[in-house]
Amino acid sequence: MSIEVVGVHKSFGDFAALTDINLTVPAGQLTALLGPSGGGKSTLLRVIAGLEDADSGSVEIEGVDATSLPAQKRNVGFVFQHYAAFKHMTVRKNIAFGLEIRKRPKAEITAKVEELLELVHLTQFAERKPSQLSGGQRQRMALARALAIEPSVLLLDEPFGALDAKVRKELRDWLRRLHDEVHVTTVFVTHDQEEALEVADTIVVINDGRIEQVGTPDDLYDKPASEFVLSFLGPVTRLGGQLIRPHDIEISRYEQAATATGPITRWTRVGFEVRLEVTPDDVLHPEPVQVVVTRAEATALGLHPGDQVWLRPQVGAQTVSS
Amino acid sequence: MSTGTSAGAITGTATSRSTLTAGSRIGLGIALVWFSLLVLIPLAAVVVTATEGGWSTFWDTLSDPDTASAIRLTVVEALLVTVVNVVMGTVIAWVLVRDRFWGKRALEVVIDLPFALPTIVAGLVLLSLYGPDSPVGVNVVNTRQGIFLALLFVTLPFVVRTVQPVLIELDADVEEAAASLGATRLTTLRRIILPSLAPAIAAGASLAFARAISEFGSLVLIAGNQPGRTEVASLKILKYVETGNPAAAATVAVLLLLVAVAAIVVLDLISRRAAERG
Question: Which residues of B touch A80 (CB under 8 A)?
């Protein structure tokens, strides 16, 4: 029980950013706070870090009540979306900052910084200024700086949000591996469901200042508690009054017991998958249905744009009625 | 190399290795001529005038006790004023950027007043408050304190105006990062904020210092111009010109020029050191 948030409320003027948040983050895990922008996930992270004061409720970190502790005393590592690099210091100085403030012996600081430079693969950039680094390198530096103080918990606020898609992906894999090495309790905020599903042990879905669902990536994907969770964790489409993922729809060119039937009205191929839009003939089913099949399936089934097809949920498909 | 149809446009630049385009050549030319006419040639003329009578005139002028005293007074007062400005200007900029209070906009405008005011008016303003007929009973006319006050008045905006934009641009999350790493407000100020502001503070300090050693208008009324006591360099120059000694006037001018250049170089070095040390 590493972080315990109980009954936290936080408002900015009239806007309720967090409403009655109760959350337990287990020690040593990688937890994602997932939700749309403005949903309150960053505010929750900042409340845990002490960068924002909750209006009511309490925050406990490693069994210590941190509610009234200032950020300086919480021993929390925080990584910002835009790096928050100390621009006038070298990479080495940036990483050493927290240790120098703690007045650790010089030799210990040097050794620790060297070790962290190694960990984040920045050894040959140690004497550079942050402005001479790429975005991904700057964020790795920020991570090393946060880890230097051996924090009880590591908090990352949209850590890869400012990076391009390829670097994002690399850093995400790297963060997962790093966490497996360091084992510090880590909470990161993201609005990217793929990032959360891929990296996190536990996902906390937050929307409108409330927690929608807490669970493992599998739980959330297979047993979404609400329409919101289902639709936020991946693409959904509506088939016969139920929400379903487009790849969970069985499609056939031959007449069969079906939820809907109609012609393929759109055909988009993206890499290995084919995204179809089927417009049902049924006037009571006015919206088109999205279906995703692999290219191999499309070929095997002999599908072509304009074909009349029959649709039904696959056996065991996850649906939520709406 | 060029084809016949476009040859006309290219011939002018074809043989040069410079990367300047025709347009930027004209721009550079205009800038250089302008700068030379306004600054370089007059500066050279002053140096020539100063050394016309030989080095002996130069040294004689500088070793004259009254002149030496005027230059010393000017430089010392300017240094003091610069130090006060560095502190107060940074504090005022901080208040203007970080705090919200009633009358902030008005204060923003008032800060610039010493810029906009003719300096003789500044002298007049100070005279009416701190002169012989002072309503508060403080008379600084004919004293070094008076010079100090007048210089403070006219140099007030420099540091404020150079630090303010940099302070606005400073990211809040950098300070939050320092806090989460355990830094107190004071440590954050000393190790993160001030080093980031150092170049701006140095720039403002250079301007303030340069303005202080060259100040004339406000001092005419306040300083009293007593040789060896409250006579500053700029007024000394005027006296030399009026008494028909242009070489001596130019000598003092050249010295002020060297002091100004030295001050700018030194402040630049200090700011670089401060910014790197962190």
Answer: 173, 176-177
